[in-house]
């Protein structure tokens, strides 16, 4: 069996560009949607041309032209859609409902990976407003996929290292604090953090794997399942200095949502579920899922002690 052909919708995005590169690196004929809506965004142009240089095919298409998407989808076997999440109010996740109709109409797709890549929305029915919109919308897309009987894999479970590791999980910054670090509660809830290139590598590994057909692939490699305390300790060992730890209670942290803009409120909710509830790790993977590092031990994922060296 040859390597399946892949279309990436959202290929110039933060995760999307890594998915394109991983697809090429793992030898898949790779197609990237080229949207006229990017206008004069030269950063996106540069990325698209870079993909082309590396052997990807650019396919013109627009969400406002149904047939253009059907034609694009008909070129491939697998569609991956790392479309942006709902950290603004633009509801991009629900745009995938159109893509679901397109894939149904095209009728040739062997696997669809919608935009997931974080909390498992099926376990977030209790999530706080307004952050829950992300999960609610991802569940609406899941239902449409399953109603249309489209073969799928949902890739879930890990937090992106850039948002959660380099900053020692501090909100509002991407760099490590110098003197004081805010610790969420006792700092013992376990959080799975992965470098984004590793998330992309696992994502591509799974597209031709019958073991993850119509299942959730959980990205939970055991060595990257760390508490915030362990993450901070790893950093302190690297720099040879201890930071001042300041614990913030659940109540005070949630109260900090007041007065924040929409993205900030979404963020506080998500941090709360991760660091007080342990929502990424507080369950066993059942029949509905598989764990990525078990299925693909050949992926040499980056450990956080190694990752954090970049920030010293
Ligand atoms: P980005 O914000 O980088 O956006 C990805 C792509 O979405 C864009 O490049 C663009 O595609 C496409 N897009 C945005 N708006 C539109 C539109 N109106 N019409 C068509 N396409 C549009 O996404 P991320 O990489 O940050 O997020 C991808 C997924 O990962 C989301 O589901 C998000 O929730 C999740 N996530 C998880 C995190 C974690 O810690 N686990 C952290 C951050 C995100 P194009 O390339 O065609 O321009
Ligand atoms: C990451 C963030 C970081 C918000 C997920 C505010 C979806 C997920 C772990 O966009 O809101 O500072 O799973 O000040 O399923 C944002 C979101 C994190 C980044 C969460 C996310 C994680 C989205 C901030 C901040 C570093």
Q: How is the quaternary structure best described?
A: single chain
Determine and state the CATH class. Answer: Alpha Beta
Q: Can you tell me the CATH topology?
A: Rossmann fold
Mean pLDDT: 97
> What low-confidence regions span 5 or more consecutive residues with pLDDT below 50?
none
Q: How many individual domains?
A: 1
Radius of gyration of CA atoms, rounded to a whole number: 20 Å
**CATH 4th-level superfamily:** NAD(P)-binding Rossmann-like Domain
Order of H and E elements: EHEHEHEHEHEEHEEHEEHEHHEHH
CATH architecture term: 3-Layer(aba) Sandwich
Strand content: 15-25%
* Helical stretch tally: 12
Structural class based on helices, strands and sheet pairing: alpha/beta
Based on Cα principal axes, name the global outline: globular
Domain NmrA-like: 3-308
Family: Belongs to the NmrA-type oxidoreductase family. Isoflavone reductase subfamily.
Protein name: NmrA-like domain-containing protein
GO molecular function, one term: pinoresinol reductase activity
Would you write up a description of this structure?
There is one protein chain. This protein has helices at 16-25, 42-53, 66-73, 96-106, 132-147, 161-164, 196-206, 228-239, 250-255, 262-277, 292-295, 304-309, and strands at residues 6-8, 30-34, 57-60, 78-80, 111-113, 153-156, 159-160, 180-184, 190-194, 215-218, 225-227, 244-248, 289-291. By secondary structure, the protein is of the alpha/beta class. It has one domain (6-311): Rossmann fold. The strands form four sheets. It has a five-stranded parallel sheet with strand order 3-2-1-4-5, sandwiched between helices. The protein has a three-stranded parallel sheet with strand order 6-10-13. It has a three-stranded mixed sheet with strand order 7-9-11. Strand 2 (30-34), helix 2 and strand 3 (57-60) form a beta-alpha-beta unit. Helix 1 (16-25) crosses helix 7 (196-206) and helix 3 packs across helix 4. The longest helix is centred in the middle third of the chain and has 16 residues, at 132-147. The protein is globular and about 55 Å long. The mean pLDDT is 97. The chain binds NADPH dihydro-nicotinamide-adenine-dinucleotide phosphate (NDP) and ligand GO6. NADPH dihydro-nicotinamide-adenine-dinucleotide phosphate binds next to strand 7.
